[in-house]
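This section describes the prediction task in plain terms. A model, or a person checking by hand, is given the sequence of a single protein chain and must write out its three-dimensional structure as a string of tokens. No templates, partner chains or ligands are provided. The sample shown here is typical of the held-out split.
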Amino acid sequence: MALSAAFYAPSQASRALLFGTRKPNFSRTACFQKTLTVRASTTLENYSKLPVGEKSVAPSKSNSWQWKFKENSINIYYEEHEKEREGPSKNILLIPTISDVSTVEEWRSVASALVQQDGNVNWRATIVDWPGLGYSDRPKMDYTADVMEKFLVDFINAPDGPISGSENDFVVFGGGHAATLTIRAVKRGAVKPKAIAAIAPTWAGPLPIVFGRDSSMETRYGLLRGTLRAPAVGWMMYNMLVSNEKSIESQYRSHVYSNPDNVTPGIVESRYALTKRKGARYAPAAFLTGLLDPVQTREEFLELFADMGRRKIPIIVLSTEGSPKRSKAEMEALWEAEGVSKFVEVPGALLPQEEYPAMVAEELYQFLQESFEVNN
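The expected answer:
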């Protein structure tokens, strides 16, 4: 649950133990090229066809890919969504938001909606779980932003990977940190997507964005990280802070979803099950304490997007109306930022692709049409 830019410990005692003592009134779409256009988004009532939560769509097929990293051979879980039709297809790689309960499930409805469209391009969607998260293996190793970026690069470029053969003919849709890590890899020249969508993009983990990164706090983050990774006390701490249904429900109601009524028992049970998988606490311990942060400052964050403009890679940013204050500020910093070709605000908080999949799918498909189908 630590999807957010805020950190909610379940009790006063645990908070003391660890740390001591502009919301716009309209949705907008803007294209920043020669002119600026603004339009109101379609109302929520027009987006009711796609399922949410436990009604999520089954993939065409699921499989695993072996990622070789140092001494580890890690099973990486992925799903493919496609519609049987004639002609070549283009690939969409959808990457979940990094969190304690990160999962391919958040993208299923959007993936299904995109591949069902009857346009000039046949779209094939692949959703992949990060190593250490979701349904992928969770070995005890040092998870860092560099490690996650290397995984992403290897997965995209692997000759035996699910999007092999696509060469540069693919797009990436990422939530939260996933989008920023992707853009960082593009800036290094390690991957070359045709376009990128950043959904509720973030760059700072829950604790650093709230409490900062001075030397005192970094020391505390290190102590917390070490405690969470420890054999016995680590599970105790993890169960207290993260792996309990009450905490998960509270997080989703407070800032992961914008409408508490959308937080169903099925969603809570599904996410709770993820926190009980073997090795579940290692990657979240790194994320909570900032080790998975792609950059350290807003200036670096903005520079990543600016570089995409110089590379002429179209980027759409989907900001959300109900994000936590600090995360919202980082998203809004991308409004009119260099390199951002389209900025859209949609309902939701930190998981709009799961809470409002039809609206997100509509905006993303329009972006795909504008980027690819106009010239076909």
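For orientation: Residues 357-373 form the longest helix (17 residues).
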